[in-house]
Amino acid sequence: ASTLAGAAAEKGRYFGTAVAAGHLGEAPYVSTLNAEFDSVTPENEMKWDAVEPSRGSFNFANADRIVSHAQSRGMKVRGHTLVWHSQLPSWVGNLSAGDLRTAMNNHINQVMGHWKGKIHSWDVVNEAFQDGSSGARRNSPFQDKLGNGFIEEAFRAARAADPAAKLCYNDYNTDGVNAKSNAVYNMVRDFKARGVPIDCVGFQSHFNSASPVPADYQANLQRFADLGVDVQITELDIEGSGTSQATSYANVVKACLAVTRCTGITVWGITDKYSWRASGTPLLFDSNYNKKPAYTAVLNALGGT
Ligand code: G3I
């Protein structure tokens, strides 16, 4: 195969990208998306501030544009994200515990219900653990008012809202074996032991020189897979350029292919022009949509040419 999605499909994986609705009018953005990818993740359009800016008032229009585009091209959609401390409208933080529980469950029901049957995987809870050595939960309105049980409660609500969707926990700095990934691992193991519905763990995989691809990346993916969940690389981008960037990208792809339950890879954007890393060049296409060495390295690692 000669495209990322085509080569990945021959290995039984999807190859996706984050997409911003605001760029869907740009011809080379869309042609690159359509040619190379078979899964999309709305970069911001499904987040709480975008879909429920005030309580009970839902706005799905921008995300619908992405979902419609994906469906018309036969692409999968990853849902991102239902319960997250960031891009959370201030009204959520002002609720009492009881109201917050009701609002969280309603948000999950309404948002998953709107796209029921159209989302292959949902990031139900995003980034709930702290960085560093503590392995502790991150402070958030959910953690602070509902306690540790908010994650379990969110997953149970999600299963009921769209039984066909794979339910993922998604985080960053959990890509290698470390205190943070150990904490997530222990949570997933506990969920599997107690029958709390969870199907997948997302490894964001935002890498740079200070945080390169860990040597134990594959081993870490494998230990989660061995718990009985799928693993997905959900927000891949790697700062740098040239051969070293290309080699790092290839290593990520090889790690996924070596783990049977690593079901797909999503890069966090199509082109360096629109990366969230404002000054960086972390993606597979340069700002003129030319294929970078990293693109070729990924394609070749997938077995394509
Ligand atoms: O939509 C507003 C616009 O109305 C306003 O005029 C403009 C002015 O700043 O801001 C716009 O919102 C921005 C939004 O992206 C949409 O472009 C926010 O400021 C900006 O903070 C937001 O950044 C996003 C970031 O998440 C927020 O946390 C990035 O695009 C997005 O790539 C990034 O993605 C996250 C994942 O969701 C979770 N994992 C980490 C990853 C990278 O930070």
UniProtKB/TrEMBL annotation:
It catalyses: Endohydrolysis of (1->4)-beta-D-xylosidic linkages in xylans. It is an enzyme of class 3 (hydrolase). One of its GO terms (molecular function) is endo-1,4-beta-xylanase activity. GO terms for biological process: xylan catabolic process. The active site is at residue 235. Residues 1-301 form the GH10 domain. Keywords: Carbohydrate metabolism, Glycosidase, Hydrolase, Polysaccharide degradation, Signal, Xylan degradation. The keyword Cytoplasm does not apply. Its EC number is 3.2.1.8. Belongs to the glycosyl hydrolase 10 (cellulase F) family. This is Beta-xylanase. The chain holds residues 36 to 340 of 452 of the full protein.
